[in-house]
Amino acid sequence: MTSNPTTPTDTRPALDREHWQQRLDELAAKHQVPGATLAVLRLGPDGDELVEAATGVLNKSTGARATPDSVFQIGSITKVWTATLVMQLVDEGKLDLDAPLVEVLPDLQLGDPEATRQVTMRHLLNHTSGIDGDVFTDTGRGDDVLERYVAALADVAQNHPLGATFSYCNSGFSLAGRVVEVLTGKTWDAALREQLAEPLGLTHTSTLPEEAIRHGVAVGHISPEPGQEQQVAPVWMLPRSLGPAGLVNATARDVAAFARMHLSQGRAADGTAVLSPASTAAMQAHSTDLPDHWSLGDSWGLGWIRFDWQGRRLYGHDGTTFGQNAFLRVLPGPDGTGGIAVALLTNGGQPRDLFNDLYSELFSELAGIRVAEQLEPPAEAPEVELTRFVGTYERSSITTEVFERDGGLVMRVIPTGQVALESGATVEELALHPVEPGVFATRAPESETWMAVVFYTLPGGAEYLHYGVRANPRKA
After folding, report:
1. Of residues 361, 277, 383, the one with CA closest to residue 30
2. Is 398 among the domain residues?
3. Domain carrying residue 464
4. Residues 366 and 392 placed together within one structural domain of the fold
């Protein structure tokens, strides 16, 4: 995608590449981010403007410099790509979002018989299926990885009743990727390449390490303990079986070009129809609310997260892998045409603090809005009965212990499972600051960004802790 200069009829000030390069340099250093790339895309009646910037290194061990052509892992932004492939199937009449998936996968077996019979693609795309979401089963490197992964879901517990609440679900997107394979006759990797990357002209987008290595590739960085120097993450990527949930590698430019298609009613920059306007709109429309509407977005579409920034509706997604974090926000034009897409890819440090600072500046200048206010502890803490929240909450890959200490609540987050062991993830203790009954604010010791912790009860009486956009059921 090329950057078109503004024309005399375009009254907007041109995007200032040098300014945003300087701000990326300064803010990445402030938040100890080793390397980052940025793409700011603005659509308008007189053409597109694209500004790119890069800072720091791809790998602290080698000192390789980050450039706009550098490839990072975009993590769970991949889910929107998978959702787009699904909606192409809807456009072709091959899939009904509300039909039971067993009509497409007759051998499907989940841990819960009712969910097996009734789960639909809509449940997968809006994270309400109840399938335990962080199941990182490695089923090898062959083209049958998703088939084998889905077969193993028979042994995965149901995290919550089907449709009862929202809980972020990687497992559901691997299942969605398998549906794509069955209905296209291609691997998920081939479908993404042939139906999205190629029509959109994305020259640096891939899903497999042997494809990514053709470019300058970022590695993640983590700190073994808070305050310690960052080191290269011991694992580079998730198992191939998690491909549809998080294995796209791309430049910030390519991520912005993907977003451009969604801003343009499903059309690529050259006019190629990639997705119908109806399916594009359906992905952005409200599908379900979140128990925690402070930490990320307030609601979910079909694949997209939905955000309210000072009354303006945005959509986007974030991604997290081993020491890499990616951010995409898309603001449609007020009249339904044009718009802004901003992609930021990082490889360590405090990336969410970088995101908050940089995106607030960008969107303030370009659209007069800032990142939504985060939930923070009030100046005077409210009186809250603490003992009712004390207990152990457990799901795949994470055990959370909530206990009292020095008159307050503490949340101990314990990573479990093979991926936690391989990645070097450590136990984390976080103080919970009461905001209102059932709602607390917390943040990591070195982070400026607050996150919400919400305790709530489903109609059937089951108790949950919602943190990190995941529902954690309380153990009996």
Report:
1. 361
2. yes
3. 387-473
4. no
165: nearest Cα among 132, 134, 115, 128: 128
Residue 224 sits in the same domain as residue 112:
yes
pTM of the model: 0.95
CATH of the domain at 438: 2.40.128
Q: In terms of domains, do 196 and 81 share one?
A: yes
Instruction: With respect to residue 381, please indicate whether it lies within any of the assigned structural domains.
Output: no
Confidence (pLDDT) at 332:
97
Q: Give the closest residue to 68 by CA, choosing from 82, 54, 84.
A: 54
Q: State the pLDDT at residue 337.
A: 79
Crossing angle (nearest 10°) for helices 78-91 and 252-263: 40
Catalytically annotated residue among 3, 61, 70, 76:
76
- Whether 382 is covered by a domain: the verdict is no
The pLDDT of residue 11: 62
**Which residues of the chain, if any, have pLDDT below 50?**
1-9
206 catalytically annotated: no
Alpha-helical runs (H) found in 270-405: 277-284, 351-367
| Residues 171, 304 share a domain | yes
- The answer to whether 251 touches 258, Cβ cutoff 8 Å, is no
Residue 174 CA to residue 242 CA, distance in Å, equals: 6
Q: What is the dihedral of CA 448, 127, 462, 392, to 10 degrees?
A: -40
